[in-house]
Fold:
Amino acid sequence: MRIVLGVSGGIAAYKACSLLRRFTESGHDVTVVPTAASLNFVGEATWAALSGRPAQHEVFEQVHEVPHVRLGQSADLVVVAPATADVLAKAAHGMADDLLTNTLLTARCPVVLAPAMHTEMWLHPATQANVATLRERGVHVMDPASGRLTGADSGPGRLAEPDEIAAYALAAVGDQARPGATGDLSGCHVLISAGGTREALDPVRYLGNRSSGKQGYALAADAAARGARVTLVSTTERPAPPGVEVVTVESALELRDAMLARAAGADAVVMAAAVADFRPAERATSKIKKTHDPADPDAAPTIELVRNPDILVELVQQRGPASAPVIVGFAAETGDEHGDLLSYAREKLERKGCDLLVANEVGEGVTFGQDISTVHLLRRGSEDVRTVGPADKSAVAAAVWDAVVAMRAAP
Structure:
């Protein structure tokens, strides 16, 4: 697929280097079109080295090839990351004063804009009106993330992570998103869970885990790109891939209810969420106060926990002896002195009764919140193990759906 990657002038331009690598390593041909301002942050030589072709930013370079028209006409996808407030305004009003904005006017393929700017600029009525105009015209404008910005500032306006942008952009293209994609999930309804559950202690505090939800969103994006109708039950606030229905939940019980209610009509169910094993037996109605007893300055409340339901097992039990839906479980494993990761994963596959188990290698700084994972795919009734990684989460997602497609096709 031919991708034009536009880069505008913001400090987040350095993140576009990782986005470029994700596209090229997936087999796509990428032409980088940086604005003049962006070259103050990342130089032209970097783009050329990473893409394997010259970066283009001047309207009057190679005039005989008419680049201001050709790039947009020949592209299968145009992505601008970061998209500054200036680029959003120019795109909304049809201005074309450089090669990137000319390309946006001539493109007839999906266009994805990933904004990045300070919070005040993002929330300004002019920017919001420009975004609304672009979306009305069919341009895919991602919502920015919230977090640390330049200097000490923090808030909405942070560029989304490269893997999120890549998944969102490729899903916008549909069946052309992956080299060799064949729409092999067309006509299927897939149900996916994502993120880590939060179990409330009181109105302020909760028990949780480190899951970011990135893998679940990558699974949703890849399934949509393969033609599936996708329902994503999520505990996180991430930009949804185009065409994906998102159901927001928080606790394990809410996740359980949402998954069981929707699983019966699905062709495949993937439990990628990290569900808390326990929850408080009672939720305090007001904030639990820290005691200040001079006789016992270290006093702390005792929290009674109860076990959460095993949603994966309940999904298998609800299915009964039927062959549909195909059910995929995820397991975060480390191994210890009593057994290695694969032995624990095999035991879990047998106990859960799902069709495919994806065993995640986890640990301090490994998998949770990261862009790279290593997983092992174990299929019920088979001794074969497929190892994927270290690889980005989109590659893991593709491997999971490849396995699901193969299971659905098996007699």
